[in-house]
Design a protein that fits this description.
The protein is α+β, with helices and mostly antiparallel strands and about 425 residues long. It has two domains: about 110 residues, no CATH class; about 200 residues, no CATH class. It is built from 18 helices and nine strands. The strands form two sheets. Strands 1, 2, 3, 4, 5, 6 and 7 form a seven-stranded mixed beta sheet that branches. A two-stranded antiparallel ribbon has the order 8-9. Helix 8 crosses helix 9. The longest helix has 29 residues. The radius of gyration is 29 Å and the shape is elongated. Pfam families: DUF2851. InterPro entries: DUF2851. This is DUF2851 domain-containing protein.
């Protein structure tokens, strides 16, 4: 006996029981014409179901419980929303159930119909404490099923990402340039400094930079000043000149500065320090005007990569990783190939996909997917763990799909909602 009602939902949805010659406990014949659509909101569990009891055709909802008496526990007998239930699917039919008008709700008892092997497989998947519950059986799943599901979860991941962009877009009153400016800034912080970079972009709207496009020093002063790095006295000429420039610009635009302590330096290599990323971001702003327009005009993956290539970073950062903190040796500062790919995956791709979705132009959605297919798969723990199980993960489209699969299916034990889990449940031992 089990206590998870979602298992019965899955069994009903997939009809994992003999459907020929079905009979209700009352002895009447039952034919399932349509199981219906699963309902994730309030009300009966499945709607738009169709069944035949005896010679009578019924259309309505199906409610599912472990015990028939759960209907009473959940107070459905007092809720007219359940008067359209045409079938009560239960594991144990321990009580007759009636609608609010006193009519009997027909019941289908499952406990004598379901193969124990199916139940064991379901319980094994749901109770598995492994980070990948099906890891011992996933190798049995055919490539067609795996590939189709990976395509599906990739689109789910992009839909999940563009929901955040939609909120940005609405908050910026439909400005594409401002939305992209904030999204790109956020991803310049990569994982560890995303929030500070987003706060910076909100305090420094892209239209403000338009007055200073030709002056890199002023753009750097704005970026480092608002970020909170110019609030002390300096000995070095470069930061001292930025400080003086910023004092004027701060008064002119009535700017608010961030607290320096919000920027995280720990657990990162010097080339990933926020100071270096801020210098790169300033260089990108200096070189590129109307960046969103260029995003739409670009066609090939090399065009998008060129956004971040060969940025003119001030020479000061070749010798320092923070203001007045020297490097041990001179380093040519540039955005690495892996970081460029990261920016494409997390900024360029979702922005193109959102634009295509919002404007109903599939061309831009296709460009976004094409970028992912041409980029190499990301290297991280989830991807490596699935690779060890023998799965083919070649492109960034694959690795993005794997990340969504891991976060929203494996981690949440939604094996019954996963095509791979469903395939495993239907495999013979």
């Amino acid at each position: 006996m089990f206590s998870d009602e979602s298992i019965l939902h899955y069994i009903w949805k997939c009809k994992l029981f003999p459907v020929k010659d079905l009979r209700l406990k009352s002895g009447e014949s039952l034919k399932i014409i349509r199981v219906g659509q699963q309902n994730d909101d309030a009300g009966p569990d499945f709607y738009e179901s169709r069944i035949r009891i005896g010679k009578t055709l019924w259309a309505g909802s199906v409610e599912i419980h472990i015990n028939a008496s759960d209907w009473i526990k959940h107070h459905h007998q007092k809720d007219k929303a359940y008067d359209n239930v045409i079938l009560h699917v239960v594991w144990n039919d321990d009580k007759k159930i009636f609608r609010t008008d006193g009519t009997l709700v027909p019941a289908l008892e499952l406990k004598s119909l379901i193969n124990k092997d199916i139940l064991e497989k379901i319980e094994r998947l749901k109770d598995n404490n492994s980070s990948i519950p099906c890891k011992k059986e996933i190798h049995k799943v055919d490539k067609f099923t795996y590939r189709n599901w990976l395509d599906r979860v990739l689109v789910e991941r992009l839909d999940y990402k563009i929901a955040h962009i939609k909120r940005l877009f609405d908050g910026n009153k439909g400005s594409w340039e401002d939305t992209f400016h904030i999204l790109l800034a956020r991803n310049f912080g990569f994982k560890i400094n995303q929030q500070p970079f987003e706060m910076l972009a909100r305090n420094l709207p892209q239209r403000l930079f338009g007055h200073h496009k030709s002056n890199l020093r002023q753009i750097e002063a704005l970026v480092f000043g608002v970020a909170g790095f110019l609030d002390k006295e300096f000995i070095d000429t470069y930061p001292d000149s930025l400080k003086k420039e910023f004092e004027f610009l701060k008064r002119k635009y009535r700017l608010t500065t961030l607290d320096k302590f919000i920027w995280k330096f720990s657990k990162t290599r010097p080339d990933n320090f926020p100071t270096i990323r801020l210098a790169q971001f300033a260089a990108l702003i200096h070189r590129s005007s109307h960046l969103f327009s260029k995003l739409l005009e670009s066609r090939e993956i090399d065009d998008y990569k060129a956004f971040f290539s060969n940025l003119e970073i001030n020479n000061y950062w070749f010798y320092n990783y923070d203001f007045e903190k020297e490097r041990k040796r001179e380093t040519l500062v540039k955005i690495g190939a892996g970081s460029v790919d990261n920016l494409l995956i997390n900024s360029i791709v979702p922005m193109l996909f959102f634009y295509g979705n919002y404007m109903q132009r599939d061309l831009f959605k296709s460009r976004a997917l094409n970028i992912l297919e041409k980029l190499k798969a990301e290297e991280n723990s989830p991807v490596n763990n699935f690779r060890k199980l023998g799965l083919e993960i070649v492109s960034a489209a694959d690795s993005q799909g794997i990340l969504h699969l891991k976060n929203f299916y494996c981690n949440q034990k939604k094996c019954l909602n996963c095509a791979i889990g469903a395939k495993i449940l239907n495999l013979k031992r």
